[in-house]
C-alpha cells in the first residue's frame, strides 16, 4: 500500500489532482490518498484536509489573503512534519507549494512536483530551491524537460493532462442541440475564467463585446462556460440587466469550446484547452495596474497565452490591459467569423500545438512515475 499526500491549489489543479488520484487507484487500488483540493478530488476518493482558507488568489495579496496563506502554511507544515507519507505530490501553485516542498524535504519526505513552476516565464531563481527539495519533476509542456534536466533536476515529460479531459472529437451540432443553440447563426463561446476576480473584471468586457458583435451579426448566439468554482450568484449578478441573451453551461468547458465558432477566452489553462479542442479564439486579460507592471518587469517570455508560448509564435491574438476593450475584442472575433482563411490558418496552428503536447494518458504516466518514487 502506498500512502500519498497530494497538494493542489486552484480549480484546474483540483481537476488534475482528481485525474491523478483515479490513475493512482487504477494502478494501486489499496493506495491511501490524503490531500488538499476541491470537490473533484473528493469525488476521486481523496481524503481532503479541512479548515483551509481559499488558495486561488491572484494579484497582489491584501492582509486577509496573507493571513489565510500563513494559516494554510502552518496547518500543512504541521501535517508534513507529523505524518510519514511514501511521497508528497505538489501540483502547480508554486507560491505556496515550493515553501511546503522545503518543509516536506526537511521532514524526510520524498517530494514529487507535477505540473512544474513556470521558471521559463518568471522567477528563474527558483530553480536552486527546486534542485534542493524536489526528488522528481513531472512536466507537461514539451520544452520543460530539457530545461530542468540541464539544471540538474530529475525530470520526466508525461504529456499534458488536458489531453485526457478533452475528447478526441465532438459533434458540434449535437452539442448545440443539447445546449438549445439551434439555428443558422454563429455561436460565440465566452470563457471568463475560474476565479471571482476574473469574472468581475473580464465578464463585463465580454458581455459588452457580445453586444457589439450582435449588432453586426444579429443571428449570433452566445454560450458561457461556468467553472465549478464560480458561484451561481456571482454569475447572475453579472448577467442581470444585460440585453444580450447568454446560455450558461456549467462544468462543460470543452463542450462549450467544441460547439462554438469562435471563443473569447481569459488567459490561462483554458487557452491550451481550446487549442486542443481546435476552436479559433481571442485571448484577453486584465488585472490591477500595479500587479500588471510588476509582472511585466519580471516576465521572461514574449506572450502570456500558453497556446502562443507552446507554439513559439503569435497564433492567437492577445488583448492585455488597455487593449482588452469591448471594441477590440469584438473586432478580432468578427475577423475570425468573416475571414474563413484566417480561421482555418489558426485551426491548423492549433492542431500543431495539440500534437506537440504528447499523447493522452498523462495522468497514468504521472501515477506510474510517482509510484516508482515510492518504491525507491
From TrEMBL:
Catalysed reactions, semicolon-separated: a lipid X + a UDP-2-N,3-O-bis[(3R)-3-hydroxyacyl]-alpha-D-glucosamine = a lipid A disaccharide + UDP + H(+)
GO cellular component: membrane
Organism listed in the record: Nitrospira tepida
Keyword Lipid metabolism appears in the UniProt entry: yes
Record-linked Gene3D superfamilies: Glycogen Phosphorylase B (3.40.50.2000)
Biological process, per Gene Ontology: lipid A biosynthetic process
Keyword Transferase attributed: yes
Top-level taxon: Bacteria
InterPro entries xrefs: Glyco_trans_19
Keywords: Glycosyltransferase, Lipid A biosynthesis, Lipid biosynthesis, Lipid metabolism, Transferase
Annotated protein name in UniProt: Lipid-A-disaccharide synthase
Protein's job: Condensation of UDP-2,3-diacylglucosamine and 2,3-diacylglucosamine-1-phosphate to form lipid A disaccharide, a precursor of lipid A, a phosphorylated glycolipid that anchors the lipopolysaccharide to the outer membrane of the cell.
Example of a GO MF term: lipid-A-disaccharide synthase activity
Pfam families (alphabetical): LpxB
EC number of the protein: 2.4.1.182
Origin organism lineage: Bacteria, Pseudomonadati, Nitrospirota, Nitrospiria, Nitrospirales
Amino acid at each position: 500500500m502506498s500512502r500519498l499526500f497530494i497538494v493542489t491549489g486552484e480549480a484546474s489543479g483540483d481537476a488534475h489532482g482528481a485525474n491523478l488520484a483515479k490513475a493512482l487507484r487504477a494502478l494501486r487500488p489499496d493506495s491511501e490518498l490524503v490531500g488538499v483540493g476541491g470537490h473533484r478530488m473528493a469525488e476521486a476518493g481523496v481524503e481532503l484536509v479541512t479548515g483551509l482558507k481559499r488558495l486561488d488568489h491572484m494579484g497582489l495579496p491584501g492582509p486577509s489573503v496573507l493571513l489565510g496563506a500563513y494559516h494554510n502554511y502552518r496547518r500543512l507544515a504541521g501535517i508534513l512534519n507529523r505524518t510519514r507519507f511514501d511521497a508528497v505530490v505538489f501540483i502547480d501553485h508554486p507560491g505556496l507549494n515550493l515553501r511546503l516542498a522545503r518543509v516536506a524535504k526537511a521532514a524526510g519526505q520524498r517530494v514529487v512536483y507535477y505540473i512544474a513552476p513556470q521558471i521559463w516565464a518568471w522567477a528563474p531563481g527558483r530553480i536552486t530551491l527546486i534542485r534542493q527539495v524536489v526528488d522528481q519533476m513531472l512536466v507537461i509542456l514539451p520544452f520543460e524537460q530539457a530545461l530542468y534536466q540541464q539544471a540538474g533536476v530529475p525530470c520526466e515529460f508525461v504529456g499534458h493532462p488536458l489531453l485526457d479531459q478533452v475528447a478526441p472529437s465532438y459533434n458540434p451540432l449535437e452539442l448545440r442541440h443539447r445546449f438549445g443553440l439551434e439555428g443558422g447563426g454563429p455561436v460565440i463561446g465566452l470563457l471568463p475564467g475560474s476565479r471571482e476576480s476574473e469574472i468581475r473584471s473580464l465578464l463585463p468586457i465580454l458581455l459588452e463585446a457580445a453586444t457589439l458583435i450582435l449588432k453586426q451579426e444579429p443571428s449570433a448566439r452566445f454560450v458561457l462556460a461556468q467553472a465549478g468554482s464560480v458561484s451561481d450568484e456571482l454569475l447572475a449578478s453579472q448577467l442581470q440587466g444585460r440585453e444580450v441573451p447568454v446560455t450558461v453551461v456549467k462544468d462543460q468547458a470543452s463542450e462549450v469550446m467544441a460547439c462554438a465558432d469562435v471563443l473569447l477566452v481569459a488567459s490561462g489553462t483554458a487557452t491550451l484547452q481550446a487549442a486542443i479542442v481546435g476552436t479559433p479564439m481571442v485571448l484577453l486579460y486584465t488585472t490591477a495596474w500595479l500587479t500588471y507592471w510588476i509582472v511585466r518587469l519580471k516576465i521572461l517570455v514574449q506572450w502570456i497565452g500558453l497556446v502562443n508560448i507552446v507554439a513559439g509564435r503569435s497564433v492567437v491574438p492577445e488583448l492585455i490591459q488597455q487593449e482588452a476593450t469591448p471594441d477590440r475584442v469584438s473586432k478580432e472575433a468578427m475577423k475570425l467569423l468573416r475571414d474563413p482563411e484566417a480561421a482555418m490558418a489558426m485551426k491548423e496552428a492549433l492542431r500543431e500545438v495539440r500534437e506537440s503536447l504528447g499523447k493522452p494518458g498523462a495522468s497514468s504516466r504521472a501515477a506510474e512515475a510517482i509510484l516508482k518514487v515510492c518504491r525507491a
